[in-house]
Amino acid sequence: MKLLPSVAGHSRSLVRLLGQRRSFAVSTEEYRKRNYADNVSEYNTVIGSITAQRRFFLLRDVYDDMMLDGVQPTMDVFHSLITGTMKGARLQDALFFRDEMKAMGLIPDVTLYNMLISLCGKCNNSEDAVRILDEMRRYEVKPHSQTFICLLNACAAAGRLDRVYTIVRDMTAAGLGLNKFCYTGLIAAHMNKKPVADDFATKVVEFVERSKEWLSVDATSATAESVMMNVSEEELYNIPTAEYVNRRAGFLNRQLTVYHVALHACANLKNVEVMETIMDMLKKDGKTPDVYIVMQVMRCYLHSGDIDRGLNAFEGHLNSGGLPAVELYATLVEGAMVGYTPKGMQLAQETLANMNSRGFFLNPKLGSDLLLVAAGEKTGGYTTANYIWDLLQARNTTPLFPAVEAYYKGLKEREIPEDDPRLSLVTRIYNNLRVKSGGGGPSQL
């Protein structure tokens, strides 16, 4: 069941205001046509549909409509609402729903508190994560191992190495073993600490090695709760592989989670030496790199300025019979554009052409990410940005607003006639998206 897309923003507020008297002003049939849910079960279905569509900004509107309709939310409804806000990284909405629960006499359970702590990590807000744990204790909601792992990874996202080590000590003192998600948190904390700790290299290698013998944390029930809420452990703990957990075999081997996070950290920090050490460890363990690992190796080389070795990693994977994926092509294109060198921009264009000829196509997210990078080119003919735009247009794919805005501004900085068809089309799409995003009226050519 879907919300009508035309019902949004201020117009929704007006509809809701008038709707307070709607049952007295319209017939039963008209009332049913105007409303998308009548009871708590139907509202819960709508919330699930909105979350599945990733239209998280509508969750507050649905809740407001429930209140106007006199439908009393249940604990299950609040579970669905807070799950949606966690997936959409909407911390203020989540805290609002928590406060509404308490105002109705419903105390969040441990699963909801874990979601809130996880959301704080997703929003890089470790202070609120700690405050939520304190609130749990005030309400006598007993935290379990999953709670502490959520808190560990929330603090790791903010680079709070001191707090992460304190949580590890507390867990150990309580007799809780460290599982692989604790080690991913330790690696992330070292990556995110500013400035990066001098012992980053030795610590990451140590954590990867120690994780091979990780003890099983008593979290069977916690894992079951996560599955019930349709949230993977990777998503709950904000692991960078979260968006890939449902991909087909060969893309992501979830048994290599610690390797994934370690190599992701190396790529982010452009540390080729540690990356190669970890890849040697993987080989000695007799493990085959999955697509995600190849992507991180490519990123590490490419962002370090070594285009040749990045390309070799890409070709070596495909030539050895590795699973092809559009993300591999996108990784090579994005990395080749680093520094906007002539060699890199040429490789980016050739890779896009090769990708297209092999039947791989950019989805809105990948296309937007690449267009945003390509639009930053200040010199040259803007060929790569134009090519990415054309590939998306050929499949009627509209990029996200930030990418369209960057591309539009890049075109405006060049000597292009105002009646140029490309500029006219981009301007029209930019203006439409700008109005929808609340950015004001249309821009003038």
UniProtKB/TrEMBL annotation:
NCBIfam families: PPR (TIGR00756). The keyword Aminoacyl-tRNA synthetase does not apply. PANTHER family: OS05G0145600 PROTEIN. Keywords: Repeat. PPR repeats lie at residues 109-143. This is Pentatricopeptide repeat-containing protein. Pfam families: PPR_2 (PF13041). The keyword Lyase does not apply.
